[in-house]
């Protein structure tokens, strides 16, 4: 994980909402500028700016309804946006362009709150599905790859089990293995522990942390403040559809600059150590 610094939390003004600027010549893996997204009359993203560098671990926090999931879904092309720039790997993300989306999904994996495994397919077939369908990987190679990925999430022996034979934590770990099957450069994690019983949260966070340690670029929406503080290079606080404050975890949690962030941290876990 590269050490990221942010000027944003040192300047308590409009700069709070601005993002870290990469050194000249370094193209961010994800570039988001002035992104706007509406559902009908409800403008959910009101000009989001965010740059994510290769290998960076970014956590997005904020109140319910602040637009966190919508932002992730835009990055993965699951939602159309109305205005602004959104580029992954230098390529514009356009939810209406099916061939471009197929390419995007090879680079960007996503894990959802509710696992979204195919219930009628075995664990192994769930993991093999995208490589065999999208990149026409031969079945033997895909199964070998699935075995390797399931071992990585501690579930090698479950390759022939059905999803309903697994606990929620195990299902989520299969979902992570499935997301890794296309060898993505970026993993988007949308509240991946929210649907789990508390005793199953740790095993999933451990897998996510190991991916972070291995250099995976991660953008995570999370309500696990302690986890965000521990694994992130940078934390982004969203408020009312904008990036309101951003910075290194120790800055953001330890020295919040805006009343909105102070209030939010006060609401969750008594401030996650803030
Ligand atoms: N498919 C949709 N159609 C219409 N409105 C939507 C849709 N998805 C989200 N919204 C609205 O967009 C706003 C932001 O939702 P979003 O899920 O992005 O927030 P969030 O910050 O991720 O919240 P939470 O922490 O509760 O998941 C909310 O007002 C929500 O009702």
From TrEMBL:
Domain ABC transporter: 30-265
Classification via SUPFAM superfamilies: P-loop containing nucleoside triphosphate hydrolases
Principal cellular location given in the protein's record: membrane
Entry GO CC: plasma membrane
InterPro entries xrefs: AAA+_ATPase (IPR003593), ABC_ATPase_HisP-typ (IPR030679), ABC_transporter-like_ATP-bd (IPR003439), ABC_transporter-like_CS (IPR017871), MetN_ABC_transporter-like (IPR050086), P-loop_NTPase (IPR027417)
Membrane topology: Peripheral membrane protein
Cellular localisation: Cell membrane
Keyword terms of this UniProt record: Amino-acid transport, ATP-binding, Cell membrane, Membrane, Nucleotide-binding, Transport
Keyword match Iron: no
CDD domains, A to Z: ABC_HisP_GlnQ
Protein name: ABC transporter related protein
Organism of provenance: Acidovorax delafieldii 2AN
């Amino acid at each position: 994980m590269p050490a990221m610094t942010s000027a944003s939390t040192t300047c308590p003004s409009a700069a709070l909402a601005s993002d870290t600027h990469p050194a000249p010549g370094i193209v961010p893996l994800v570039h988001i500028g002035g992104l706007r997204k509406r559902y009908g009359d409800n403008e959910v993203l009101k000009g989001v700016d965010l740059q994510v560098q290769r290998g960076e671990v970014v956590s997005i926090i904020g109140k319910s309804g602040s637009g966190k999931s919508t932002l992730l879904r835009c990055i993965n092309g699951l939602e159309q946006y109305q205005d602004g720039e959104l580029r992954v790997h230098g390529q514009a993300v356009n939810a209406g362009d099916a061939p471009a989306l197929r390419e995007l999904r090879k680079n960007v994996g996503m894990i959802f709150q509710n696992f979204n495994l195919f219930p009628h397919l075995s664990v192994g077939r769930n993991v093999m599905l995208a490589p065999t369908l999208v990149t026409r990987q031969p079945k033997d190679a895909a199964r070998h790859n699935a075995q390797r990925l399931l071992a990585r999430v501690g579930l090698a022996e479950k390759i022939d089990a059905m999803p309903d034979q697994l606990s929620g934590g195990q299902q989520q770990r299969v979902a992570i293995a499935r997301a890794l099957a296309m060898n993505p450069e970026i993993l988007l994690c949308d509240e991946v522990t929210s649907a789990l019983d508390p005793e199953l949260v740790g095993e999933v966070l451990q897998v996510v942390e190991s991916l972070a340690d291995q250099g995976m670029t991660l953008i995570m929406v999370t309500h696990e403040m302690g986890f965000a503080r521990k694994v992130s290079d940078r934390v982004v606080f969203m408020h009312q559809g904008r990036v309101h404050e951003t910075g290194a975890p120790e800055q953001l949690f330890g020295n919040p600059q805006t009343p909105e962030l102070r209030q939010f941290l006060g609401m969750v876990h008594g401030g996650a150590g803030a």
